[in-house]
Write the structure tokens for this entry.
Amino acid sequence: MANEANLGAFVQATILDQATGKLWVYEPLVITKGTRPAVTPVVPVLPARAVVTIDVGFNGGNLTLVGATPHALHQGHCHNGLGSSIFGQVSFCRGTHFFWAARRAERQGKLVVPPAGVSPKTGQACPTTRSFKIVDQDPSDNVTTKYLLTASGRTAQFSQANAAAVPGATVITNGSDNALLDGFVDPVLGCKPFTAPDLSQGGAPGTSQALDELSAASSQAAPVALVPENDPMVLVGPAFSAAKTNRYRANIGQPAISPRNDTADSPANYCRNMINIQARFLNNNGTLLASGPSPVPSVGNNLLTFMANRLIMSYGNLSCGDFGLSDPVRVSRNRSGTATAVTFDTTKQTASASSATGP
């Protein structure tokens, strides 16, 4: 975990009390093998009918889950891919059951997910993790977990109390689309993410990947961005896989592939929507977004240039050029390769695939 920028792993639990509809989040601690926690982790007390989804994010390329016993992963309903074809950075435990239980609690009126709201800065709907305004090639990947890292390489759960107990520790984070929305895009737009009491932080409001997906399912207007089959995380070798895509979707509460949602999320349609909608959003709100800090300053020197560079990378990673679509972004870089200025071509593009319909 001391090498968190390249190989750090982060874990996040979202907890639902089926009896009341109450939600909490909790960050189990990851430590480097052979070390001890810098601070003893908080042990959560869960209600009797709790349903828990556990999401795993990784800052490296591929992370494979290994159970403590031969049957642990099966017992925990844990998935990190389809057979020997892993997702890569992410894994999920009991996600399908959590979202099934959450939808039932919503129908019963026990769980009420607040609307994502309207940005006071733009006058438009606040984006969600299913908004083509902000998605990349693998929407809703990784977690919003933070840990504390000491100079000696030991980790602790992030909280104000722990920060005081280990002065000088640095905050380490997972490179996450969800953290981008909750920690960078929302504040610049004047929006607020869906939160729940964080049991790792004494009940302070906390975000999570699952909370973001509950919000997106409730608030995102069409076209809705769902994990596409050309997302590199759901390919099997070089080939599309409906089964692997649907497994990923199910674990983050997204509907399975169907003719209805393919109008927005087939490989060609996803590329087209991402390019057309996101280029316009970034272009129209450039000054506002440029006022925000960059999640990775070496990639872009502010939030706008970071997101523009991310859109370029997504265009390539999804092979959008195969559908007759052009990269709409032009960036200027400094000698270190950091994006420092950007322009957008907002001309509406049409994908060459015959199924490409919509905005």
